[in-house]
Amino acid sequence: MENILEEVKAVLSKYNQEHLLNGFDNLDERNQKVLLNQIMNIDFELINSLYTNIKKEDNENNDKIEPMEYLDKNKLYDNYKYYENLGKHAIESGKLAAVTMAGGQGTRLGHSGPKGTYDIGLDSHKSLFELLCDSLKNAGKKYGVTIPWFIMTSRENNKETMEFFEKNRYFGYQKDRNLFFFIQGELPMVDTEGKILIGEDGLVKQAADGHGGIYEALVKNKMTDKMKELGVEWVFIGGVDNCLVKMVDPVLMGIAIDRNVTVACKSIVKANPNEKVGVFCKRNGKPSVIEYSEIKKEMAEAIDEDGELLYGESHILCNLFNIKAIERMGVTPLPYHSAFKKAKYIDKDGNLVVPESPNSYKFEAFLFDAFGEVDDMAILRVNREEEFAPVKNADDAGVDCPSTARDLYEKFNNLK
Fold first, then answer.
1. Torsions phi, psi for 103 (to 5 deg)
2. Span 292-306, mean pLDDT?
3. Which end of the chain offers a freer environment for a tag, N or C, measured as fewer CB atoms within 10 Å?
4. For residues 70 and 267, is the Cβ–Cβ distance under 8 A?
């Protein structure tokens, strides 16, 4: 270990990050090895670049933004059955897998555990994981197949997630046969001076690299290889916090197949012009999502000849990919965005710092930044009340919270 320690010291000296070893002697041998391994795996050039970019102000944006075409699921008419049958055949042939991004904790909900283990308050007391699993199993019965399920956890919640599934006998799935777990990537957090933080455990403080890390995580963890072994050609990727997510949709798949596109996404129309959601658009002629913070008032309120919003198709993290597109995106690094956050850390004197306001930066990639890699994609507008019931906030927020999700879930399932 002495040789590695000297090598690490040289690397830290080069990048002015020597403080990372301040508490090294206080760690047991196991954690000393973990810390050294963490440091050796940090891309310091990348971290320096990301920190430098935080300080740059991009005042000029000459991107050409245009509305993007979409199909309305309620207005497909005669084509509905055609698309449905096309997708149904592919599903029955075992060509679809589902991926659930479940790396988050339920902290904002007052829940001490992985968000997927949260009970939204139904009479059944089913967790978000079980509600999603029910949806997959029901679809499997309908189409005579078992839909392989891939769950992306984080280093923070992987152990608890695995224990939860084991305790619940994997909800009828079979681990490593049709249920697979993998861990998303992480990047170190830095303070306002660009210094990498040390966490309470004495190790490098890292944060998940955002939902845009899904492609690289699938490839690096060889999940795409596993999918191909199972005969999978199409992969639906969604979040764990939408209890109405429809992961198995023959119409969406049929549209993707018919239009010969490698990406097909669902949208819902914005509740109002000022709703704080990202919307689909064409950016310099390529598919994209424009964040609400980028949309000027006149663009947000612009309407077409039918009185509908020109930029009204919200991205709801319900996306279908051809597996070849995922493999391609998994080896092409996406741009990282910075977020200013509160983070506890150990300072250079060994003291725990508990901030009252944001004090550090985390870096994350956005899944939709990869859309520009394809020439075209399909957008299918669906009904909010049928497919989008997210659980993001505590009940006192009054929106996208357990009570609203529960109401939507109960209404939809009572109407079926």
1. -85, -5
2. 89
3. C
4. yes
The residue assigned the tokens 């005579």 is 144
CATH homologous superfamily of 42-55+62-415 = Spore Coat Polysaccharide Biosynthesis Protein SpsA; Chain A (3.90.550.10)
E strands, 70-178, in order: 71-72, 96-101, 149-153
Nearest C-alpha neighbor of 232 from the set 325, 318, 105, 297: 325
Mean pLDDT for 291-303 is 89
Q: What is the pLDDT of residue 3?
A: 84
User: Does residue 2 have a pLDDT over 80?
Assistant: no
Q: Give the whole-angstrom CA distance, residue 416 versus residue 413.
A: 5
Per-residue pLDDT reduced to its tens digit, 189-215: 999 999 999 999 999 999 999 999 999
Q: Is 131 helix (H, G, I), strand (E, B) or coil?
A: helix
Average pLDDT over residues 260-280: 94
> For residue 396, which amino acid is it?
D
Is the CB of residue 370 less than 8 Å from the CB of residue 288?
no
Interior angle at CA 208, CA 99 and CA 230, nearest 5: 25
Q: Which residues of 59-69 are buried (b: 16+ CB within 10 A; e: fewer)?
A: eeeeeebebbe
User: Residue 415: which pLDDT band, with cuts at 50, 70 and 90?
Assistant: low
Q: Are 119 and 131 in contact (CB under 8 A)?
A: no
pTM score, two decimals? 0.93
Report the distance separating Cα 156 and Cα 162, nearest Å: 12
Residue 295's pLDDT is what? 87
CA distances from 74 to 78, 80, 386 (A): 11, 9, 12
What string of DSSP letters covers 280-337?
A: EEEETTEEEEE-GGG--HHHHH-B-TTS-BTT-EEEEEEEEEEHHHHHHHHTSPPPPE
- Per-residue tokens: 133: 């699993």
Crossing angle of the two packed helices 78-92 and 128-143, in degrees rounded to 10: 100
Tokens 């697979």 sit on residue: 180
Would you state the pLDDT for residue 238?
A: 97
According to the model, what pLDDT value does residue 58 have?
52
Q: Where along the chain do its domains lie?
A: 1-41, 42-55+62-415
pLDDT digits (tens, 9 = 90+) for 110-126: 999 999 999 999 999 99
For CA atoms 282, 286, 289, 294, give the dihedral sign. Answer: negative
